[in-house]
């Protein structure tokens, strides 16, 4: 099966990519992350994804559109629900791209993180799959959490310290 793998960052893509390839899937990476703030962080993550893709010979589709204003406009009024918008907006672009490019399915490296809401990601992915006439490939990649960390450190990949948006950065660093 040809699968488009939405990649939020290089370290989170390691285990999903290995798993998908081990299952015999033909995988193409996809980078679209308009939530990442500030721009230097966005650039570091994009560069790390390109570096890792080159290491493992992963074909990539990159939407290098830094649309942070769009993200902030959508979540500023209700930051507590930012993750729902973030999942839906990025997965919608991945689903549309996968359908337009003739993939059989799409999935996301968000499913690797033990900090993300898997049930919501799965439901969002499945709903978008129905809308776009394509499959959403769900797997719980959290079982490889420690392995992914180990490999990313061995490879010297940039490892970020927060999810990506300005609110997650605040949650990570600001301790009142």
Automatic annotation (TrEMBL):
The keyword Transport does not apply. Disulfide bonds join 163-165. InterPro entries: QueH, Rossmann-like_a/b/a_fold. Keywords: 4Fe-4S, Disulfide bond, Iron, Iron-sulfur, Metal-binding, Oxidoreductase, Queuosine biosynthesis, Redox-active center, tRNA processing. [4Fe-4S] cluster binds at residues 8-9, 83, 86. The keyword Oxidoreductase applies. One of its GO terms (biological process) is tRNA queuosine(34) biosynthetic process. Its EC number is 1.17.99.6. It catalyses: epoxyqueuosine(34) in tRNA + AH2 = queuosine(34) in tRNA + A + H2O. Pathway: tRNA modification; tRNA-queuosine biosynthesis. Pfam families: QueH. It is an enzyme of class 1 (oxidoreductase). It comes from the Bacteria. One of its GO terms (molecular function) is 4 iron, 4 sulfur cluster binding. Catalyzes the conversion of epoxyqueuosine (oQ) to queuosine (Q), which is a hypermodified base found in the wobble positions of tRNA(Asp), tRNA(Asn), tRNA(His) and tRNA(Tyr). Belongs to the QueH family. This is Epoxyqueuosine reductase QueH. It comes from Geoanaerobacter pelophilus.
């Amino acid at each position: 099966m040809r699968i488009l793998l939405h990649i939020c960052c290089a370290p989170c893509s390691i285990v999903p990519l290995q798993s998908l390839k081990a299952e015999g899937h033909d995988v193409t990476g996809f980078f679209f992350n308009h939530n990442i703030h500030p721009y230097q962080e966005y650039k570091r993550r994009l560069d790390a994804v390109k570096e890792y893709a080159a290491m493992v010979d992963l074909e990539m589709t990159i939407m290098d559109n830094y649309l942070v204003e769009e993200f902030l406009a959508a979540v500023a009024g209700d930051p507590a629900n930012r993750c729902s918008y973030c999942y839906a907006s990025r997965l919608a672009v991945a689903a549309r791209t996968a359908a337009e490019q003739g993939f059989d399915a799409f999935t996301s490296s968000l499913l690797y993180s033990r900090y993300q809401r898997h049930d919501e990601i799965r439901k969002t992915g499945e709903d978008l799959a129905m809308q776009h006439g394509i499959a959403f490939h769900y797997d719980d990649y959290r079982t490889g959490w420690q392995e992914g960390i180990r490999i990313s450190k061995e490879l010297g990949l940039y490892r970020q310290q927060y999810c990506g948006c300005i609110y997650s950065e605040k949650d990570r660093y600001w301790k009142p």
